[in-house]
């Protein structure tokens, strides 16, 4: 499954740093609304804290 970013989130997604965008896209997520994006970002933070 490939990652998907809804058109209404595209501007917010594109404003993120390239490394963070790549990390999100590698997770093969479906970003349909801002809450999906927030959830993925929370997961990334939690993974970083666990290391």
What's the SSE blueprint?
Elements: E1 4-5, H1 10-14, H2 18-26, E2 30-31, H3 34-50
Key features of this structure:
51 residues, 8% strand, two-stranded parallel sheet, mainly alpha, single chain, globular
Report on this structure:
The protein is mainly alpha-helical and 51 residues long. The protein is 61% helix and 8% strand. The protein has helices spanning 10-14, 18-26, 34-50; strands at residues 4-5, 30-31. The protein has a two-stranded parallel ribbon. The chain is globular and about 35 Å long. The termini are far apart.
| Mean pLDDT figure | 95
Global Rg: 11 Å
Q: Total number of β-strand segments?
A: 2
Order of helices and strands: EHHEH
Count of helical stretches: 3
Extract low-pLDDT stretches.
Answer: none
Helical proportion, percent range: 55-70%
Report, as a whole number of angstroms, the end-to-end distance: 26 Å
Find the structural class using helix and strand composition.
mainly alpha
How much of the sequence lies in strands comes to 5-15%
Strand order of the largest sheet: 1-2
Organism: Faecalicatena faecalis
Protein name: Chaperonin GroEL
What's this, in brief?
The protein is mainly alpha-helical and 51 residues long.
């Amino acid at each position: 499954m490939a990652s998907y970013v809804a058109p209404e989130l595209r501007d917010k997604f594109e404003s993120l740093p390239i490394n963070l965008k790549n990390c999100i896209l590698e997770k093969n997520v479906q970003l349909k609304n801002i809450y999906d994006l927030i959830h993925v970002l929370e997961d990334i933070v939690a993974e970083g804290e666990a290391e």
